[in-house]
TrEMBL record:
InterPro entries: IolE/XylAMocC-like (IPR050312), Xyl_isomerase-like_sf (IPR036237), Xyl_isomerase-like_TIM-brl (IPR013022). This is Fructoselysine 3-epimerase. Gene3D superfamilies: Divalent-metal-dependent TIM barrel enzymes. Residues 19-252 form the Xylose isomerase-like TIM barrel domain.
Amino acid sequence: MRLGLFTCGYQRYSLEKAFADARRFGYDYIELWGGFPHACVEDLKTNTTAQIRALTDKYEMPVECFTPEHNAYPFNYMMGSEAQWERSMSYLEDAIDVTAELGAKKMLFSAGHAGYEAREKEIFARLEKSLRRLADYAQKRDVTLILEPLTVYESNVICGLRDLDRALTAVEHPHLAGMCDLAVPFTTGEPAAEYVKRLGKRFRYLHIIDNDGVSDSHLLPGEGRIPLREVLTEIRRAGYDGQATIELVTGYLKEPSVYAGLAMKRIREALEED
């Protein structure tokens, strides 16, 4: 697998530190977090992506996926008025533009919580409308959208393989694909490798993380309850050996270099043992 570093954990440091660490620890690429202070969509739209491209060249570390911060930050296309939906769509279309300008081929996004009052029919109609619009826009910029399921602690829209398969079947589009964050199948009781088997060519990405099984926690590999070596073995046997970001987030802000290095070491060892 090609392993990526997620820059979210470096938000209290300069973005250059993340690129330098990715090079130092042997990561293959960057998954760029689109949040303050590094890569806000609004900032990159009004200014330039040249500084980030310069880091890519300096450290020979490509940005292969852009992940804009959304879902109630303050953007959530699954909840609110028509005006709020339009604002969220416009924001994500700007994020697609940024992805293309960065030279990345993938943008990762998810479906936020639709609220407790919405009915299933309403939820799916809004989801389908949103995915179709974004996929059509992504096609214009030659970007592939990667739809990420969330845990049931984060959303009530796409929280497992059945939800993801249903969405990708309803909006069958060459620029829309799915992925798996290992926390999701572990908390829902699903085999992670089934994502690869059922989605086939529609499966394009992986987030490697550990989890406690009872929350949306994203833990350092080896610190939770997921048998990572065995799960990764099954995923590879199912036919996926592509991009996989080690998704350390806000729990490791204090020492991102320490944990980025340790995470890479543990996952490389697991893959080599396999």
